[in-house]
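Researcher: Quick test of sequence recovery. Tokens follow.
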């Protein structure tokens, strides 16, 4: 036990053995009054300390709130930046898709033109073959005529 408690108990036992002179009750009252003041003061100190801790915690929570607001702001900025980048990328993809479609249509149109030209060339080729046959036939006919004339001239002569 604590020496103060032992001393207090010893004093109490001594006083109980002696006839009460009124001083003991007064001393106990003063001791209790002193202890109550001491406890009140400790309560006040504890309340002040708790209030200080509460104030410090509130300040820290405000700092945390500010940091979270800053983080939210940064995330919003990142989201906007990401959305802008996505939009630009989508626009580029759309542009590439549009160009690809245009080029594909142009290639198909050119293939159609080439097919049409090949068909025209085939027609011209058949016409040239027919013309060549007619020319060869007419030249043979002219050559036969000339040979016949030459034979007539030699036979007359």
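Model:
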């Amino acid at each position: 036990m604590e020496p103060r408690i032992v001393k207090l108990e010893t004093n109490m036992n001594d006083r109980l053995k002696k006839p009460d002179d009124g001083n003991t009750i007064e001393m106990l009252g003063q001791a209790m009054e002193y202890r109550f003041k001491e406890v009140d003061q400790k309560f006040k100190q504890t309340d002040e300390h708790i209030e200080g801790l509460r104030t410090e915690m509130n300040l820290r929570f405000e700092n945390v709130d500010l940091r979270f607001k800053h983080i939210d702001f940064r995330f919003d900025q990142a989201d906007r930046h990401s959305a802008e980048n996505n939009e630009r990328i989508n626009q580029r993809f759309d542009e590439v898709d549009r160009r690809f479609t245009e080029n594909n249509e142009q290639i198909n149109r050119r293939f159609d033109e080439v097919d049409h030209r090949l068909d025209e060339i085939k027609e011209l080729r058949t016409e040239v073959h027919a013309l060549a046959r007619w020319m060869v036939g007419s030249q043979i006919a002219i050559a036969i005529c000339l040979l016949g004339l030459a034979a007539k001239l030699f036979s007359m002569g």
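The chain has two helices and no strands.
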